[in-house]
């Protein structure tokens, strides 16, 4: 057994040395091929080194294998080759694309950042590619209609917004010195802006096969629909495919990741690379499942109530509250795919949920804290926790007008004159502010113990608003039960 292991190690070492010698010889004799060959042999050498690592240190390699981690957590849908499992045991460069079709990313995009972060945690370099060029075309994947064209100013604004979000999230993802790998943000408009159409046809188009392009699932669905598909959208897969080729040749990127709806675009890239660079056999694609709601629909930005990742579009408080309200049926799945908690800790939470002494929403609270910290940082989490505590009926937290005004965008608000409010009964104020529909509803809720003024339960129908009740002379907070609230601004 020991001799066999030693022999395998020697063969692997010799293979890696011969590969490096061969690559250096060819690159020095053919300077024009240096980009593509450097990328190819870098990946081949990584694979050889990975094989050696897996032979000599199987336990250590297994712990750091990002593919196995993703698989265990339900974040692996498909890979183009099982060889990726071995290749990823040595440092690789991996990229995920984000088209700037809105000023902010949303919850549906979060999995891409999660998977990039897992690669970083396992020692790889992550590349976030902003689609400044591809967003002008529109990805038909998963779409029943062609996307509306965006003007240049909107694209620039969206690009800046998304770049800031990715920088914040990946830059503050809590990686310690044990996980100190880099991330890079690029924009594909930088290489597409000077690419002439005739050059594109010559360098890319002649390698594409129309039959293969039409066989892609995203294309087939659109061609069978009444709306059909424009030539512009039809070429999208070639644009994304060339992005992979460009990154492979110029950045040494060997892996592209994306949601399961990106499989056709990703394989278009791996196929294009192998046709143009036949020696490039160490390029891979990996997809993860789409993040779905309980009813099976996708999270997106085109529906009401989208869960945005920008604090200017959705406050950390509301973001936190969304995950705190996740149903029990979904919370463990979300803990696996949206957090970096140890899998054993998640299993322990799952066991607690069916135990007699389980405190309701314990798992949801942990989920909300972890995801909010990842997206909004420690300051954003603290802001969400402070607002959550301040808005809790019966809480002993001292309220101040800044806290109440700060959550004003997250709960219904109204403005009333000081003289209108002073000496007005809380029952009347609940109706006047729009919190409740009628006085009878307000009285009924009061008798049930569910009507609150500034988080204090109102016990009497005769309770009237006094000057001391108006927080800092500027606001009041009314609550009907735990969830329905109304901020009354005093003018």
Automatic annotation (TrEMBL):
Domain Tyrosine--tRNA ligase SYY-like C-terminal residues, every copy: 409-486
Enzyme class: ligase
Pfam families: SYY_C-terminal (PF22421), tRNA-synt_1b (PF00579)
Coiled coil residues, start to end: none
Catalytic reactions on record: tRNA(Tyr) + L-tyrosine + ATP = L-tyrosyl-tRNA(Tyr) + AMP + diphosphate + H(+)
GO BP, one annotated term: post-embryonic development
GO CC terms in record: chloroplast stroma; cytosol; mitochondrion
Keyword annotations from UniProtKB, A to Z: Aminoacyl-tRNA synthetase, ATP-binding, Ligase, Mitochondrion, Nucleotide-binding, Protein biosynthesis, RNA-binding, Transit peptide
Biological function: Catalyzes the attachment of tyrosine to tRNA(Tyr) in a two-step reaction: tyrosine is first activated by ATP to form Tyr-AMP and then transferred to the acceptor end of tRNA(Tyr).
Family: Belongs to the class-I aminoacyl-tRNA synthetase family.
Protein name: Tyrosine--tRNA ligase
Gene field: LOC111486472
